[in-house]
Specification:
The protein has 193 residues and is an alpha/beta fold. The chain folds into 2 domains: 108 residues, Aldehyde Dehydrogenase, Chain A, domain 2, CATH 3.40.309.10; 84 residues, Aldehyde Dehydrogenase, Chain A, domain 2. Helix content is 30%, strand content 19%. A 4-stranded mixed beta sheet has the order 1-6-5-2, sandwiched between helices. A hairpin with a 2-residue loop joins strand 3 and strand 4. The protein starts with 6 loop residues before the first strand and ends in an 11-residue tail after the last helix.
Length: 193
């Protein structure tokens, strides 16, 4: 889905532990028939899209990325894939993958990571995990996205909250109230009698 996690920036101090924990959790995901309740990851929308994701991952590896997990396609299925040693110019970081791939990069300073997040043509939604309220408030002011979720993943969404992006992620907001406002043209009529 469009607000799935794609780029992950992890502080250098916890990077290795984070990657190991993510691999451990990802290995437990079940790939299979989406009609089966046990399935976590179904097929891509069409074979062509699975092949595109496969090509982007292959290209990233040729540019120096490391496959920590996954990186394989079976027909329209693409296995959940974790990439490390990525750079922000790789397609898997720069474009919208729309597939079960995450690219993990390290950061040291708050300003550095905010700059990396903002260095994107897209700005739909972001998640930030921190116990530092000052970092959270700085991120809320400076990260260029339609929604910032603090201490939850970017995929958090409920219908009654405004939802929508900035940059190439669109304009305007969804959610019943907000969608109606977006589709309503206000006008004023003045009668001078």
């Amino acid at each position: 889905m469009c607000i799935s996690v794609q780029r992950i920036y992890v502080h250098t101090n916890i990077y290795t532990a984070f990657v190991n924990k993510l691999k451990e959790k990802t290995e437990k995901l079940v790939v299979g028939n989406p009609m089966d309740e046990q399935t976590d990851i179904g097929p891509m929308i069409r074979l062509k899209e699975a092949e595109r994701v496969e090509e982007w991952v292959k290209e990233a590896v040729e540019e120096g990325a490391k496959i920590e997990l996954g990186g394989k396609r079976d027909g329209a299925f693409y296995l959940p894939t974790i990439l490390t040693n990525v750079n922000d110019d790789m397609k898997v970081c720069r474009q919208e993958v729309f597939g079960p791939v995450v690219a993990i990069a390290q950061y040291d300073e708050i300003d550095e990571v905010i700059s990396k997040v903002n260095d994107s043509d897209y700005g739909l939604q972001a998640g930030l995990f921190t116990n530092d309220l000052q970092f959270a408030m700085k991120a809320a002011r400076e990260i260029e996205v339609g929604g910032l979720i603090v201490n939850d993943a970017s995929a958090y969404r409920v219908d009654h909250m405004p939802y929508g992006g900035v940059k190439k992620s669109g304009n305007g907001k969804e959610g019943p109230k907000y969608a109606i406002e977006e589709m309503t043209e206000e006008r004023i009529i003045v009668l001078n009698l």
